[in-house]
Specification:
Chain A: Residues 86-293 form the ABC transmembrane type-1 domain. The complex is a heterodimer of chains A (305) and B (271). With 305 residues, chain A is mostly helical. Chain A has helices at 2-7, 13-23, 25-54, 71-78, 80-114, 119-127, 134-145, 150-157, 172-182, 184-197, 200-208, 213-241, 245-251, 258-265, 272-304, and strands at residues 58-60, 63-65. Chain A folds into 2 domains: 2-54, no CATH class; 71-304, MetI-like fold (Orthogonal Bundle). In chain A, 75% of the residues lie in helices and 2% in strands. The longest helix of chain B is centred in the last third of the chain and has 35 residues, at 234-268. Classes of the chains: A mainly alpha (305), B mainly alpha (271).
């Protein structure tokens, strides 16, 4: 955009502006884009800039001390609790991502390769449970794992236990199971799309050349479906790492995640600048993890292919 | 290859598919079950069948108001984000733009930062500008979140778009607006419908942004969140959840029926 407007002749600018609009694709394109970009500048770039700025201020009762200070960042690294919870959150949602993707892959494979007709029906079948409100889906796990819940009542009726098991709910495992369930559809769909795109003749070629089914899968199907696996991993990892709804409903004190800390800084704890600093650090850490992950999958692909 | 074998052939894969479907369906199926259970405690054993929670649901003004608020916000968000997504998708597919990659990445940012961070950044900005929180601030934040989804859906519809159709209309003397209305719009329409449905659904179920950016007017997820703390309110919430589920089932079936009919019409009218 900048280049095309600077190359415009300056001497007859009145006429050339109109002509520029008609001839330059870039100018017309960016004019069309401008409402969307403006909305995002206002609602995304500006808030993130303000968040960054606020992380260098200090909370002073209901107001802020608006001078540059590293206090919040120093606080973060001096009190090990924040860092510990951040690392725990990343580990938890990393495990959730791994479990969700591993569980989703065979299902996506089944729909892509075994189902011949009405694949759409199967895809809809996969998404139907996720039409229920997210909060109610999380609540459903409270029903499953709770004191008088499905699992405890079932085991009791079958005579395996006499008293309900109390350790099922309110712990990190409950959070991870609930998250793995809540985000299942987000893993299946991208993996399915990438499997569906694979040219079937490539698989036949590998088999004709004498590879067995397993080697064909590892050397042909898996690498070709990697874009879907990567998309699925990001679609699950990013939202779950910042989630605070699930930990607060089924996590109990031991299951809290970094989202709960950030939320409390903007609620009960009332320390917005510290909350902003924790958010900035979390965002950078998540971005680092994602870069490492993408780098890792890239080198995997190069090694296999 | 294995193409001739039927999908229901009993083997490990089929067994896995059945277990997987059970895993994703089972917890959710207990929600409607308890909406018909006469005990006000959500626990086993079940008592007896009742419709009283559905009765309570229809007679709860605060719940219905929250539902109405969510519908209002969802409709506005669907329209705004689809327009913004349409403009962006059109610009990105129609013109060769310098800086196309960075622009796309920028629009996609709401998808790759955790929602809570989006929510608090907006909260800080809005409070620094002294703008009062309301359903409008919720709607604004939802539109930001939904625009990338709208853009993705519309780009995939427009990618195969034949620009010569528009050029032909322009050559035949239509102005830019009429060209859009009579040529571009009908072709992109299925994408627009899909985008409206998707963005409405996202907004309707969105909790985190609404939690931070609303004031006293609750949206439905906020109402649900607050009732989860009061066990006596939960059965009526489950009744509402089940009703919404049934309605969305009919809407999706209707949309699918329309789509199939459209495909049939397209293939029979031989132009």
């Amino acid at each position: 955009m900048k280049t095309s407007s600077t190359t415009a002749p300056h001497h007859n600018s009145g006429i050339s502006l109109a002509r520029l609009f008609q001839t330059s694709e870039a100018v017309r394109g960016y004019t069309l884009l401008s409402p969307t970009l403006l909305a995002l500048l206002l609602g995304l770039a500006m808030p993130l800039a303000v968040l960054f700025t606020l992380s260098f201020w200090i909370q002073d009762y209901l107001d802020f001390i608006r001078t540059f200070s590293l206090k919040n960042y120093i606080d973060f690294f001096q009190k090990p609790i924040y860092g510990k919870i951040l690392i725990k959150s990343i580990r938890m949602s990393g495990l959730v991502t791994l479990a969700t993707v591993l569980l989703a892959y065979p299902m996506a494979y089944f729909i892509a390769f075994r189902i011949q007709h009405n694949k759409l029906i199967w895809l809809i079948l996969i998404t139907v449970p996720f039409w229920t409100s997210y909060l109610l889906r999380v609540f459903a796990w409270k029903l499953m794992l709770g004191y008088n819940g499905v699992i405890n009542s079932g085991l009791k009726t079958l005579g395996f236990i006499s008293e309900p098991l109390e350790f099922l709910l309110y712990n990190p495992a409950a959070v991870m199971i609930t998250l793995a369930h809540a985000w299942a559809a987000f893993a299946i769909l991208p993996i399915y799309v990438s499997l569906e795109k694979i040219d079937r003749s490539l698989l036949e070629a590998a088999r004709d050349l004498g590879e067995n089914a397993f080697i064909t899968f590892v050397r042909v199907t898996l690498p070709l479906s990697l874009p879907g696996v990567i998309a699925a991993s990001l679609l699950v990892f990013i939202p779950t790492v910042g989630d605070y709804v699930t930990p607060s409903l089924v996590g109990g004190p031991s299951g809290i995640m970094i989202g709960n800390i950030i939320q409390s800084m903007f609620g009960k704890a009332l320390n917005w600048p510290l909350g902003a600093a924790i958010s900035v650090i979390s965002m950078l850490t998540v971005a680092l993890m994602i870069s490492l992950f993408l780098w890792g999958t890239q080198s995997f692909r190069r090694k296999v292919a | 290859m294995s193409n001739q074998r039927p999908w229901w052939r009993p083997d490990g894969f089929l067994l896995y598919a059945i277990i997987y479907l059970t895993f994703i369906y089972l917890p959710v199926l207990f929600l409607p079950l308890f909406s018909f259970n006469s005990s006000k405690y959500i626990a086993f054993p079940l008592k007896s069948f009742t419709l009283k929670w559905y009765h309570q649901m229809v007679n709860s003004p605060s719940m219905l108001e929250a539902l109405l608020n969510s519908v209002k916000v969802g409709l506005i968000v669907a329209i705004v984000s689809t327009i913004l997504g349409l403009l962006a998708a059109k610009a990105l597919t129609r013109y060769r733009l310098p800086g196309r990659g960075p622009v796309i990445s920028f629009i996609m940012i709401p998808l790759v930062i955790p929602e809570i961070i989006l929510a608090i950044s907006l909260l800080i900005l809005i409070s620094q500008l002294d703008i009062p929180l309301s359903l409008w601030t919720v709607g604004f934040s939802h539109s930001l979140l939904c625009t990338p989804f709208a853009m993705l859906v519309l780009i995939s519809r427009m990618e195969g778009f034949d620009n010569s159709l528009e050029e032909a209309a322009l050559d035949l003397g239509e102005n830019g607006w009429m060209t859009f209305w009579r040529v571009t719009f009908p072709i992109v329409l299925p994408g627009i419908v899909a985008s409206l449905l998707l963005t409405f659904t996202i907004s309707f179920d969105e909790f985190v942004l609404a939690f931070f950016l609303s004031s006293t007017d609750a949206t439905l997820p906020i109402y649900i969140w607050s009732s989860l703390r009061f066990p006596t309110k939960i059965p009526a919430v489950l009744a509402l959840g089940s009703s919404i589920f049934v309605i969305s089932f009919f809407v999706v079936s209707f949309a699918e029926w329309l789509r199939r009919r459209g495909v049939k019409l397209e293939s029979t009218s031989g132009i």
